[in-house]
Amino acid sequence: MTKKPKPKRARTERRILDRTTEKLREQRTKLYALEPGGSADRPIELSSPSQVEIDAESLPCPVCGDRVRLEGPHEVEEHKGERLRVARVVCIGCRARWSRYYRLGPVLN
Ligand SMILES: [Zn+2]
């Protein structure tokens, strides 16, 4: 295996990044809430509860784009008389926490 040498300016870029991270995080968190699954008002439709975990981990962190990991089995949450599935994920990069909302569609037998 060959290791790629790290570019020298990586550290400087990270410092600049840190300064803007907070603003970015704020903006992206707001945007995330408008995405499908980003809030209880916009659940993603799934046909099976077993898809919740798979889907929740399939999307990268809205802030840094790193992978996210489930914090545990998904939960059931009531919202406006509907039972929604909520998957809590945490980013392995920036450790931001996200909730993804799902509605289970009719089960086809
Ligand atoms: Zn992240």
Please summarize what this structure is.
By secondary structure, the chain is an alpha+beta fold. The chain contains 2 helices and 5 strands; from the N terminus they run αβαββββ. The chain has one domain (11-104).
Describe this structure in words.
- With 109 residues, the protein is of the alpha+beta class.
- The chain has one domain.
- The protein is 31% helix and 27% strand.
- The chain is built from two helices and five strands, in the order αβαββββ.
- The protein has helices at 10-34, 50-58; strands at residues 44-46, 68-70, 75-79, 82-91, 97-104.
- Strands 1, 2, 3, 4 and 5 form a five-stranded mixed beta sheet that branches.
- The radius of gyration is 17 Å and the shape is elongated.
- The protein starts with 9 loop residues before the first helix and ends in a 5-residue tail after the last strand.
- The model has no long low-confidence stretch (mean pLDDT 88).
- Bound molecules: zinc ion.
- Zinc ion binds at residues 61, 63-64, 66, 91, 93-94, 96.
Keywords:
single chain, 109 residues, alpha+beta, five-stranded mixed beta sheet, 2 helices, elongated, binds zinc ion
Bound molecules: zinc ion
SS-derived structural category:
alpha+beta
User: What's the total number of strands?
Assistant: 5
Unreliable stretches (pLDDT < 50, length at least 5) are: none
Task: Please indicate the count of domains.
Answer: 1
Beta fraction: 25-35%
* Helix content class: 25-40%
Distance between the termini: 49 Å
Computed over alpha carbons, the radius of gyration is 17 Å
Number of helices: 2
Q: Mind describing the biggest β-sheet?
A: 5 strands, mixed
